[in-house]
Amino acid sequence: MSTHAPVRTQDFAALAERSLPAPVWDFLAGGSGEELTLAANRAALDAVTLVPRVLTGGAGRTTGADLLGTAAALPLAVAPMAYQRLLHPDGEAATARAAKAAGVPFVLSTLSSVPVEEITALGADTWFQLYCLRDRAATTELVRRAERAGCSALMVTVDVPVMGRRLRDLRHGFALPPEVAPAHLDPAGTGRTHDKRAGSSAVAEHTAQAFASDLDWDDLARLRADTRLPLIVKGVLDPRDAARAAALGADAVVVSNHGGRQLDGAAPGVDLLPAVREAVPDGCRVLLDSGIRSGTDVLKALALGADGVLLGRPVLWGLAVDGEQGVREVLRLVESELRSALTLSGCAGPADARRLGVRGAAR
């Protein structure tokens, strides 16, 4: 740790970059292609400005919110992120413990390096993120496994028919070390994640073999019929897709471009957020993913119509720097920033944010 305590989540980024091998840092930090969308996510959020209210009385009383029936301490969930044991030996277990301590849901990836049963045993409110596999029976078994383990929601990612072309990983010939593997997939088929070859990504090659690349709306309808868990559809940008997902019974949609890691040149999620909010019924929750770095970013998302956000890379920065304690500190910083932003904008809590004036974004 630095002699100066981090005072914002980005301070953890600098510490994490210094502590990690370059290939691992680039796997964490990088985007696809020329990383245009990766940069655009931040530029779009930075361009949003808020019009605070004054003399409202009791501003900043609470940061709590309801997220799919969960009384969360913050209007956020920890985003699903793969292979967290790359960053710390405890991996997803450390992150889940920190999320539980912070009172927010933890979303566990299909590509977790720790199995779902070990995560739910820690007591965190756990949502399971699903990648649909070529083997449809294996996909169904993943859903059943998440249900048996006690997950409280299912989040299906729909924007990865194939993994985006991530140039940093190709330059490194990125592969997982022997001690890290996808805990939920067939061990006999995951050895290729460790096969390092110049100019290729072993992780991308593995997902190309494992993931279904031909998902359609019928698949989503079957998944909706196949589970009683709340269903969240992640990876939506077009309001027409959001509306169709809601019509098929999705309980929530996540406006996301996968953190700039899929289609390079895709629009920033925050730019589409207001239109998505208008396209879905009030009963369908809307979450924003991609580019969130601070409590002020959370407030901007709420003001533009989101019910909450997914927090991604900052959590991994904290994990890389100091394990569970690092993640706890990242979440504490976001909570402190959000409380300050709510107070200064005249909002008693997250529910008031939608009444704020917003500039610099489509509405």
TrEMBL record:
Q: Which CDD domains does the protein's record reference?
A: alpha_hydroxyacid_oxid_FMN
Give the EC number(s) listed in the UniProt record.
Answer: 1.-.-.-
Q: Which UniProt keywords apply?
A: Flavoprotein, FMN, Oxidoreductase
Which PROSITE patterns does the record match to this protein? FMN_HYDROXY_ACID_DH_1 (PS00557), FMN_HYDROXY_ACID_DH_2 (PS51349)
- List, separated by semicolons, the cofactors it needs: FMN
**What InterPro entries does this protein's entry cite?**
Aldolase_TIM, Alpha-hydoxy_acid_DH_FMN, FMN-dep_DH, FMN_HAD, FMN_hydac_DH_AS
Establish whether keyword NAD is in the entry.
no
Q: Which residues form the FMN hydroxy acid dehydrogenase domain?
A: 1-363
Q: Name one GO molecular function term.
A: oxidoreductase activity
The cross-references to Pfam families, in alphabetical order and at most eight, read: FMN_dh (PF01070)
Family, similarity comment: Belongs to the FMN-dependent alpha-hydroxy acid dehydrogenase family.
Q: What is this protein called?
A: Alpha-hydroxy acid oxidase
From which organism does this entry originate? Streptomyces noboritoensis
